[in-house]
Design brief:
single chain, 108 residues, alpha+beta, Alpha-Beta Plaits, four-stranded antiparallel beta sheet, 4 helices, globular
């Protein structure tokens, strides 16, 4: 079942987030089963919102790649919030813009 995840970290900031992505080689080697990844700052930390093909796909990615990358980047505390939920509907009116969102945001 397609699964959403919302995770919030108090001990994660932009620098560490980018370091985790670098260690994961996220853009050149995307995780199997990841459909959508988004992240950004919140007061006192960082929020990640993902959509995965299944909870099992996320769990495998966490075990095989993410847990080690987080530790290596100095993120040693677990998320302060982590919620999984079944995706009933997802809609992207301009899906061709999603892969370019980072570049669009950075160019502002």
């Amino acid at each position: 079942m397609t699964t959403g995840i919302v995770a919030e970290f108090n001990n994660l900031d932009e620098r560490r987030y980018e370091r985790v992505n670098e260690l994961l080689n996220l853009y050149q080697n995307p995780p199997k089963g990841l459909l959508l990844h988004s992240a950004g700052p919140i007061p006192g930390g960082w929020r990640v919102v993902d959509i995965w093909e299944s909870r099992e796909a996320f769990d495998q990615f966490f075990k095989d790649r993410l847990s080690g990358a987080l530790k290596q980047a100095g993120v040693t505390e677990p998320p302060t919030k982590q919620d999984f939920f079944p995706i009933h509907n997802a809609y992207a009116p301009k899906p061709n813009l999603l892969s370019r969102l980072t570049a669009t945001v950075e160019s502002r």
